[in-house]
Amino acid sequence: MATPNLKYTVPGMSDEDAARVVELVQGRLYACNDLHLTLKHVHWNVVGPHFIAVHEMIDPQVETVRGFADDLAERIATLGGSPKGTPGSLVENRTWDEYSIGRATTQEHLGALDLVYQGVISSYRDGMKELDDLDLVTQDMFIAQINELELFHWFVRAHLEDKSGGLSTAGATSETQAAAAAG
Known about the structure:
Layout: H1 15-45, E1 46-47, H2 51-78, H3 87-93, E2 104-105, H4 106-131, H5 136-158, H6 175-182
């Protein structure tokens, strides 16, 4: 990701700090745009006995994450940057693989989503730590979004958990492994 060339930023923040904050926020914008499209893909492609429960559980997640993307883009603009929301920029700059599960059972999709949420939340937390020294306003935004993402992750994991608290996806390192383990 290229360092943004800012003409101005918010009062009290150096141009250098603002540029780094814009980079961090842009990374989350890519992640949220990808996540809400992935969630919608899952919504359309789940099948099986628990179809309606998962189908209906996913839509509010899509809408919330889509809202996160808008908030992130507006934060970039507030800091003097130009948010990048085109499909090409997302594909060019993402650091993760394309979601690989097509039509599959609810359990398979939820297994894959367990890993997706792990990746998104972990990257948010990395950014949150860095923002501690850069910008507490943006950090607060990240914290609020992490709170919601962790709740959604729990919704997903509740379908993957056995009565002793073990996850069917434990140890999986790819979406396909997690989908197979959950299925």
